[in-house]
Amino acid sequence: MRSKILVVDDEPEAVELVEFNLKQAGYEVFSAVDGAEALTKARAKIPDLIVLDLMLPEMSGLEVCKTLRRDSATARIPILMLTAKAAEIDRILGLELG
Predict the structure, then answer these.
(1) Is 30 helix (H, G, I), strand (E, B) or coil?
(2) Which distant-in-sequence residues (6+ apart) come within 8 Å of 11 by Cβ?
(3) Alpha carbon distance, N-terminus to C-terminus of the chain
(4) Strand arrangement, sheet containing 79-81
(5) What is the pTM of this model?
(6) What gap in Å lies between CA 70 and CA 11, rounded to an integer?
(7) Nearest to 61 by CA among 34, 95, 92, 29
(8) Residues facing residue 42 across a β-bridge
(9) How confident is the model at residue 55, as a pLDDT?
(10) Which member of 5, 25, 35, 76 lies 3.0 to 4.6 Å from 59 by CB, making a disulfide possible if both were Cys?
């Protein structure tokens, strides 16, 4: 069975690039364009990994991360934060949230 990866980003080009490369590597990939959709898909499909942008509309990636960590069904899913934010505080927050 192929590992499932959820890619969350509101930039279609970024999703397309990440999705293409992950599929080429043999992963099953599905995507979400905002935090609410990410939470719904993560709970429904329980991916093996989430690639999460921090700058999302409506709900930030950090809020998505916090919500996923509080839910026992999604708390242990590894999250890779993929973002243009480079400030040290953003890295610290990401690490603290898991």
Answers:
(1) strand
(2) 53
(3) 26
(4) 28-32, 4-8, 49-52, 79-81
(5) 0.86
(6) 27
(7) 34
(8) none
(9) 86
(10) 35
Answer positive or negative: Cα dihedral of 62, 74, 50, 91: positive
**Given its phi and psi angles, is residue 46 left (phi above 0), alpha (psi -120 to 50 degrees) or beta?**
left
82 within 8 A of 62, measured Cβ to Cβ? no
Residue range 18-77, pLDDT digits in tens? 999 999 999 999 999 999 999 999 999 999 999 999 889 889 898 999 999 999 999 999
> At a CB cut-off of 8 Å and minimum separation 6, what does 72 contact?
none
The residues facing 79 across adjacent strands are 50
- Report the C-alpha gap between 11 and 82 in whole angstroms: 12
Residue from 56, 58, 55, 48 nearest 79 by CA: 48
Rounded mean pLDDT, 15-19: 95
Tokens of 84: 């243009």
Residue 96 has pLDDT above 70, yes or no: no
